[in-house]
Amino acid sequence: MDNSYRNFASLMGTVLVLFVTILAAFGLLYSYSTINTYNFILLVLILITVIVTLFYFVSSIAIMYVYRRKKASRIVLCISRTGLRMLFPLVIVLTGLFGGNKDTIKKFYIDFNNLLVDTMDKKYSPDEIMILLPHCLQYSECEYKITNDINNCKRCGRCCIGFIADISAEKKVPAYVVTGGTAARNIVSKKEPKIIISVACERDLSSGIADVGRIPVIGIVNDRPNGPCYNTNVDVDAIRNKLESIINEKE
Ligand code: SF4
C-alpha cells in the first residue's frame, strides 16, 4: 500500500467515524429531548442565521461602498476585504448553480482586490516586487526556454514577452514565467516578494490571490484571442502603469 492511499483511507475512516458519532449524538438527543431542547436548538439556529445575515449585509454594503468611492476608512476596508474573501467562494458556488458567468464574478474579485492594493498607496523597491507571467504568453513555436530565465527571450516581437522583459530590465524588477499554479507558488515562497504583479486568466488570478493571502497581488487579466492557454496576450502598458504606481523610483 503506498503512502497516499494509506493517508486517503485513514482520512475517509476518520470522516466516517465523525459522521457516525454525530448520528449517535442526534439519536440520543432525539430520544431524551423535551420541548425545551427543541426550542433551544431552534434559538441557536435563529441566532446563527441572524449573525450570517448581518455579516452578509454589512460586508455587501462595505464592498459596494469601497468599489464606488475607491477609498474608505481602515475599518471599512478591513470589513470589505474579509467579507469578499469569505463571500467569494459562496458567490461562485451560487453562480455555478444558477448557470451564471463565473468569470464575471472572478473579474470583479480581481478588480476589487486591485482597488484594495491601490488604497494601501505603498511604494516598494524594485527587488521587493515580482512580475509573474503565465507560460501561455509566449509564442507557441518559440524555441527559447524562458521559464528558466526570461532573459533567454530574443525580443523578436512575435509575442509580448520581449516587451515585458524590457520593462523588467529597465525597472530592475524581476519577472518570472511560470508553467502553472504550483510553479507560481514555488517561486513566490522561494523569492518572498513584498508585492506581486501577476498576469493570468480570471480563474488562475482569483485562486492565486486567495492562495498567497498575506502578499498583495495586483492582477492583470490576459487576452485570449486564440482560446484559453494558447498564444495569449496582455496589455503591456497596463503592466508598466501598475509597476510605476508602486515602484519607488529613487531606489
Ligand atoms: S518575443 Fe521572446 S519569447 Fe516571444 S517569440 Fe520572440 S523570442 Fe520567443
UniProtKB/TrEMBL annotation:
Signal peptide: none annotated. The chain crosses the membrane at residues 12-32, 38-67, 79-99. Keywords: Membrane, Transmembrane, Transmembrane helix. Pfam families: DUF116. InterPro entries: DUF116. The keyword Membrane applies. This is DUF116 domain-containing protein.
